[in-house]
Amino acid sequence: MQPDDKEILYLAQKVNKKNEALALLMKKYKERLYWHIRKMIIVHEDADDLLQNTFMKAWKHIGNFRGDASLYTWLYRIATNETLNYINKKKEGLLHEDADIETMLGNKVESDPLFTGDEIQKRLQKCLLALPEKQRLVFNMKYFDDMTYEQMSDILGTSVGALKASYFHAVRKIEAFIKNEVF
């Protein structure tokens, strides 16, 4: 049985229970956060590093958690920000090269031995990588993570209307990409 968020937060406030609280936090949210990150950056090792950074940042600031949102929403926001910052740093590093981050990640889909998807899943990942960052993020959150627009709004700090528009445009671009792609 998964630990209750209130229990985790209570233990986090106790000096002699902090390690137990961190272990429970990681046990409860590790897998969902990992896959959220992995869908954005494709590479297992990078996703693993970013997940660790997410938990370190969350743990450092858990005393500041106000409870305005759920613990998961707060962690998801941290993971999203860590991932977007990582992608932006990668893009800055590629400014002097001929490749772009989407092409680089698309190549990773093909060559990553840990990517277990079939050909259709690989094509979908390549379609997603062709989307602008925001649309890709919103599509992943809605389609794969089955989040409501309200949950996404809490995490991303964007209006529900803007998120619906981003999702609509993402779906249209994916449909067009698949329709026009030569297989």
From TrEMBL:
This is RNA polymerase sigma factor. GO terms for biological process: DNA-templated transcription initiation. Residues 25-91 form the RNA polymerase sigma-70 region domain. Keywords: DNA-binding, Sigma factor, Transcription, Transcription regulation. GO terms for molecular function: DNA binding; sigma factor activity. Belongs to the sigma-70 factor family. ECF subfamily. It holds the Pfam family Sigma70_r2. Residues 123-174 form the RNA polymerase sigma factor 70 region 4 type domain. It comes from the Bacteria.
